[in-house]
Write a structure and sequence with these properties.
This protein is of the alpha/beta class and 128 residues long. Helices cover 41% and strands 19% of the residues. It has a five-stranded parallel sheet, sandwiched between helices. Helix 2 packs parallel to helix 3. The longest helix has 14 residues. It is globular. The termini are close together. 31% of the residues are buried.
Amino acid sequence: MGELKRILHVEDDPSIQAVVKVSLEAIGGYQVQSCSSGHQALEEVEAFAPQFVLLDVMMPGMGGPETLTRLSERIDLAQVPVVFMTAKVQPSEIEHLRNLGARDVIVKPFDPMRLASQIQAIWEAGGK
């Protein structure tokens, strides 16, 4: 499956975006491309060629689920896991997000010290 290096992070909240970037780059050693909207993610996804996408659910304009659908037209979701980050953690909501094609769901608020290891575990679990 190879080593995970490039993560596309889509999040409209600049403070969360900053914490995730620092957490994943400093602790995980990943290269993180931050996008503040679904539209920006669609513009940058092919050039950045992420191996993993971390996607906020609630965003103005194009929300996470629509962004996921649009991303699936540009990248192979079987090869590039998409994980939602959300504060909505009812089992039915998590199941709905997984049915859309998400590999997993990370709950907000998340622990910045553990985020890189959570992502690494999801990456390794998805290995073919």
